[in-house]
Amino acid sequence: MAYPPSPLRTQLVTAAGAALGGGAMDLLHVPLAWMIGAMTATAALAWSRPVAMPGWARPAGLVFLGLGLGITFSGPVLAAVMGALPVMLLGGVLAILSGLVVAQLFTRLAGTDRQTGFFCAVPGGVIVMAVLAQEAKASVPTVTLAQTMRVLVVVLTFPPLLGWLAPHGDFSDFTASHAETWWPGLLGMAAAGLVLAWPLQRIGMANPWMLGPCALGIGLAASGHLPSGVPVPLIDAAQVAMGASLGTRLTRSFLMASRRLAIASVISAAVLSLLLTLLAVGIGAAAGLPFAAMILGMAPGGMPEMALTAKALELGVPLVLGFHLTRTVLCNLLVGRIHRLAMRFGLLG
Length: 349
Prior knowledge:
Elements: H1 7-27, H2 33-46, H3 57-70, H4 75-83, H5 85-110, H6 114-121, H7 126-135, H8 140-164, H9 183-202, H10 208-222, H11 232-247, H12 252-256, H13 259-287, H14 291-298, H15 303-313, H16 317-344
């Protein structure tokens, strides 16, 4: 009689496979190699055996990722990002409205009701949109699957396309000097970041394990009191944890049980990506901001994934992160109101 593998063994096999997949992609010089390799390797394992990652792996990775992103905000860089705030607000609003347009396509392809289709199509992050969908009595499982598929499409397409094709432009205004690693200072920052993340998690904030440490890193870097940098191997490990966490969702049952929904999610994500890319290029030209950073900033991917892509490709991390932070805030403030207005005027009825 065959017994299922133990949870610990499953986690070890999954983590090892994810790390090997990331290493293989890194040897091939694939952009965002550790995340994409970990995700694809974990997904491949998931089709033939159980997969799992320790519950602490993704939060731990997000803590160090948040620190690594936050410390890129020196005083001058923070000032430059704040100067671009009107553009970031415009980009966030346009991204939400673009989701409202693409929702019509998604609803036809997936066969869902229009209300659920709206929350599936708006690029507001998996957790945020699932919470808002629950409040609006839409189908949370459908929204979660569609939002997950959208993130996967963006993660698999934007890094290689931007790495190979996009003009990189001048990012000097949005680039800070690299800080040396001092392990006592880094561990102290990680501990303080956890302290800041805990209350955000308690109140239901999306991505608290990244946002708390990121805020700490921004404060220390902008004030000139940064005790340590974050070494590249820790950022790579964070990529592996995030990629493996995404890959564990791609089980055979997950994809085969909702093939029509998965196909609709992929097509609508591609259309939304193209629409937001065109808007990003137009806004970037008008505002004088680098095209590649604008494209990543307005991309319909998750905040951690797009910030990691910017870091891996050295495409103005603070500017890209600023766009996604702004969109996250706007989604919390506006998506529910836009949904109610659309319902009132019959756009989703």
